Amino acid sequence: MDAIMNITLGITIAGILNTIYLSYHSIKGTLVYCLFFPKEWCEKVQKSRYSKTFGMPNPYLGFLMLLSILVLLLLYDESIVPLWYAMALINFGFLFSLYFLYIQAFIIKAYCTWCVVSALVFISLFILQFFL
User: Fold this and answer.
1) Where are the bilayer-spanning segments (predicted)?
2) Which pLDDT score is estimated for 79?
């Protein structure tokens, strides 16, 4: 595997860990620790109606998407699993991340540290896919 693929896998794993942290707090009904932003901002985002998509908490969807990307990248072989499968999910996640950043900035008017981290993961994956 080349260096870019290793970096991509590492960022994907970091994103999975982030979604596990967010999912844990979603399951427990507790608030996440808010770094860099006022703690009430994280609470505002976490308790907003935008914290779920189609009735499912966003961290669960992020976990499933990143886990799928990880599996597809690990199975990558043009003859069996083409790279564009993972790239399609990366692009979808990237667009969703931009949408949720927009929601935080202009509708909720508050940011959640860990949601921003999730967006940075997908932005990074989006950029890296052009070098795979």
Assistant:
1) 59-76, 82-103, 110-131
2) 79
Q: Is 111 helix (H, G, I), strand (E, B) or coil?
A: coil
Q: Mean pLDDT over residues 39-56, rounded?
A: 95
Domain of residue 46 covers: 3-131
Q: Nearest Cα to 12, choosing from 131, 128, 130?
A: 128
Q: With beta carbons less than 8 A apart as the criterion, state whether 12 and 82 touch.
A: no
Closest to 97 (Cα-Cα) out of 113, 68, 83, 117: 117
CA separation for the pair 85, 69 (Å, rounded) = 8
CATH of residue 91: 1.20.1440.130
Handedness of CA 40, 49, 96, 67 (dihedral sign): positive
Mean pLDDT computed over 49-78: 95
Specify the number of domains making up the chain.
1
Smallest Cα–Cα separation from 119: which of 94, 86, 92?
Answer: 94
Rounded Cα gap, residues 73 and 66, in angstroms: 10
Q: Quick one: residue 113, left, alpha or beta (phi over 0 = left, psi -120 to 50 = alpha)?
A: alpha
